[in-house]
Amino acid sequence: MESKRTTSSVEDDIVSLRSMQVAGWIYLLIVVIGSWLFVSWSFALSVFVGGVISILSFVVSSKDVIGFFDSIMPLTQDEGEEKENKEKVKKSKTGFLIKFWFRIAIIGILLLLFIKSGKANVFGLILGLSTVVFTVTFAAVNVARRYFFSGRR
User: Fold this and answer.
1) pLDDT score, position 80
2) Whole-model pTM?
C-alpha cells in the first residue's frame, strides 16, 4: 500500500512539473504578443529567444535532476555493496555536473551569438530569460494560496 502512495505522489509531482512547463509556454506567448503590440518586433523577438532558451533549459534540467535521483534511489544497503553504491553515486553526481556545465556553456554560446548578431534587445532578452522565474513564482504563490485557503493549517 505504501508503494502505491509513493507512486501517486511522484505522478502528482510530474503532473505539477508538466503544468509548470505548459504555463511557461503560455506566459511566454502572452509576453511575446504584448511585447510585439506595445514595444517592437525586435523586442518581441528577443523576448521569444530568451524565453525559449529558458524554458528548454528548464525542461532539460528537470529531466537531468529526475534521472540523477532515479539513479541513486534504488541502491541497496547491503554491507558488501556499499562501496559499489558509493561509486555509482559518485559517477552519477559527476555526470550530472558535467551535463549542467555543458548546458550552461551552450546557453552562453547561444546568447553570445544572438547578441553579436545585432538583432538582440538586451532588456527583451532578460525578460524572456526570466520566463521560468515568473512561472515558478506563480506556481509557488498558487500552492501557498491553496494551502492557506484550504484549511490545512
Assistant:
1) 60
2) 0.74
